[in-house]
């Protein structure tokens, strides 16, 4: 039976929350159970600064997420790439997520700007965000910069997590006036050893076999699924780093959100692993914190 991706997209959009459609080679189309709750750890709100995207209006994106049975989406802000007043950026993000319970705001921090510690405090304290998102390539620093180490320690000390976007778009499609190289995540090994409370998620990565091997040795670093290559990409990543360190992420609306759903179906992973990636791992990553030491004087 011939089965086209456009049929799969239609199935993902129209079937009930408990299943999507998949085709096995030489077999008929079968229903694959999916989690009752799906968490997308990587979406962005507002307009991409270099061109208009479908779904770059918040209501439209939320409608699409609901169609795809996404019950929770961790939302950063495209405005954080180029705006310097990140306090206002994060306030607009928070306001956009209010009254939209499916959206979890993730504030943007730039450690090269003055007042970044206050921005961290506002995001994690005042605004009660669970973590922050970084764009080192756009903000002009590398992960071996001591400023990054200070930021990671500050966020971890407040029991938040850090998301690092190693890329936002393919370097081949970037404007010739603004070339942004991919971020090298290698220095994370040093910081994760130095800061035992740190939790980091790498977003939009497309690691090769050698990089996957290096990542597997770095503790408390997890990955999203948005830019893995090929129909076996998610399964290959799971084999390399472990099924507990892969979290579902779509990079919507820059990438069409259906693509991430299809990638999960085509991975042919066990239902239990699919549930872990799309629900349990994000839940665990978000709530894990290191308990403060016991006060022996009590």
Write a structural description.
With 298 residues, the protein is of the alpha/beta class. It has one domain (37-287): Alpha-Beta Barrel (TIM Barrel), CATH 3.20.20. It has helices at residues 5-14, 58-67, 86-97, 116-126, 136-139, 146-157, 188-194, 209-216, 233-241, 257-266, 271-287, and strands spanning 19-23, 29-33, 38-45, 70-77, 103-105, 107-108, 131-134, 161-165, 200-203, 221-224, 246-247. Strand 3 (38-45), helix 2 and strand 4 form a beta-alpha-beta unit. The longest helix has 17 residues, at 271-287. It is globular. The N and C termini lie far apart (69 Å). The relative contact order is 0.14. Mean pLDDT is 87; it is low at 1-6, 12-31 and 290-298.
Explain briefly what this protein structure is.
By secondary structure, this protein is of the alpha/beta class. Helix content is 37%, strand content 17%. The strands form 3 sheets. It has a 6-stranded parallel sheet. A 3-stranded parallel sheet has the order 3-4-5.
> Termini separation (Å)?
69 Å
Give helix and strand order, one letter per element, not per position: HEEEHEHEEHEHHEHEHEHEHH
Question: Beta-strand percentage?
Answer: 15-25%
* Second-tier CATH architecture: Alpha-Beta Barrel
- Fourth-tier CATH superfamily name: Metal-dependent hydrolases
Assign an overall shape. Answer: globular
Quick one: biggest sheet? 6 strands, parallel
Oligomer state of the chains in this structure: single chain
